[in-house]
Amino acid sequence: MSASPRWDTLLLDAHLATFAGAQPFGLIEDGALALHDGRIAWVGARRELPGAPHELAAEVERLDGALLTPGLIDCHTHLVFGGDRAQEFDLRLNGASYEDIARAGGGIASTVGATRQADEAALLAQSLPRARALLADGVTTLEIKSGYGLALDAERRMLKVARRIGETLGVEVRTSFLGLHALPPEYKERRSDYVAEVCEVMLPALAAEGLVDAVDAFCEGIGFSHEETRRLFERARQLGLPVKLHAEQLSDLGGAALVAHYQGLSADHLEYLSASGIEAMAAAGTTAVLLPGAFYALRETKLPPIASLREHGVPMAVATDCNPGTSPLLSLRLAAGMACTLFRLTPEEALRGVTVHAARALGLRDRGTLEVGQRADLAAWRVARPAELCYWIGGELLLRSWIGGTPVRPA
Ligand code: DI6
Ligand code: FE
User: Which domains are delineated in the chain?
Assistant: First the structure.
């Protein structure tokens, strides 16, 4: 007669990259991991299991030597949008720059037009396949920004679609309100009216509807100034919402120091980040989100100051920046590989960047590592060692994944 098993599921025959503990990648060879009630209930070397597998768990699954990692977390995407910008890709290959196109009314503004035209069903239908593609390469949590509506109704529609993607796919979606992404054409001569509309009307309304998990802005010459961003952050603080920022992507406006001043979750892009920006981020504990897809697609040559971020102990996350203009990238695993090849992150840094540090960039403490008590968000891969996840360019490496203990890609 045996007592009823203490765990729902026990996973065996896997190597575990836990991103906890002192080993590189937090690696545990021939490990075991137990799931119970959607959480990780036990993790360790198989030989240390406190009993026979079938007595410990209602179900025992063998993963045939797979590598098990935390589910990947894409902490910066703009994947809800209408249309595409393949036409501008063509223009850029014929000599125009991203800024030329933006100033000529293309760029973000053209996606705003297509997004405003799409109703909720159309926007969902266009955006879902992109989210599915991310999930197919191991993502279990993703952030989605608004910022292609730039008017209350259209921003609301984007954020609702973001939530519906989460419900449809059973994945957790964190939303960021990016009303200060671009100046909408109807406000061309009235910048300060638009900033006021965003701060005093749109943000409070959308926050009250529960559609906003964080507040973001594009602090840039072609976006919004330091002062305009500061005004938004003041409003976010009053509403008790965390902030993050597109900072120092094309020039240095001191955005990183500004977001650090507001104890921001993250400063993102950072190619033009200054020494004082790094110090401010280190002091505030603001995560650096690196977006090698945009660096690649824009053929940027200025590298973010990786060595200095590393020296100052600033946590580095990596994300796709999935968007129609500067990063039509649908694989977070490939973003991690690009962070290695283009930015010289080590595979361990890049993989921490899409797990534990990405969780941090979203203010989430219950995921991103394989540790007891964490959400059972897991990915099992057909690879022998963690570096392979960054090394292979393309390929179907994901065997299966679990979100909150529920399998999403059955074998
Ligand atoms: N920085 C980016 O890379 C994206 N937004 C931003 O603020 C680009 C968005 C786009 O071009 O549609
Ligand atoms: Fe972005």
Answer: 7-71+369-407 (2.30.40.10), 72-361 (3.20.20.140)
Ligand 1 and 321: CB distance under 6 A:
yes
Strands 7-17 and 172-180: unpaired
> pLDDT 10s per residue in the chain (411 long)?
456 789 999 999 999 999 998 899 999 999 999 999 999 999 999 999 999 999 999 999 999 999 999 999 999 999 999 999 998 889 989 999 878 887 787 888 899 999 999 999 999 999 999 999 999 999 999 999 999 999 999 999 999 999 999 999 999 999 999 999 999 999 999 999 999 999 999 999 999 999 999 999 999 998 999 999 999 999 999 999 999 999 999 999 999 999 999 999 999 999 999 999 999 999 999 999 999 999 999 899 999 999 999 999 999 999 999 999 999 999 999 999 999 999 999 999 999 999 999 999 999 999 999 999 999 999 999 999 999 999 999 999 999 999 999 999 644
Q: Are 281 and 316 in contact (CB under 8 A)?
A: no
**β 378-381/316-318 pair status:** unpaired
What is the C-alpha separation between 390 and 154, in angstroms, rounded?
37
Determine the Cα–Cα distance for residues 261 and 269; give it in Å rounded to an integer: 18
Q: Which of 76, 77, 78, 229 to mutate to test the pocket of ligand 1 (most atoms within 8 A of CB)?
A: 78
Ligand nearest the Cα atom of residue 147: 1
Q: Give the environment of ion ligand 2: residues with CB less than 5 A.
A: 321
User: Which ligand 1 atom is at minimum distance from the Cα of 325?
Assistant: 11
Centre of ligand 1 to C-alpha 3, Å, is 56
Ligand 1 pocket mutation pick from 91, 218, 229, 244 by most atoms within 8 angstroms of CB: 218
Distance CA 74, CA 2 (A): 43
- Span from the CA of 67 to the centroid of ligand 2 (angstroms): 30
Establish whether residue 25 lines the binding site of ligand 1, counting it when its CB lies within 6 angstroms of any ligand atom: no
25 CA distance to ligand 2 middle (Å): 28
**In this structure, what are the phi and psi dihedrals at residue 21, rounded to the nearest 5 degrees?**
85, 180
Q: Are 400 and 409 in contact (CB under 8 A)?
A: yes
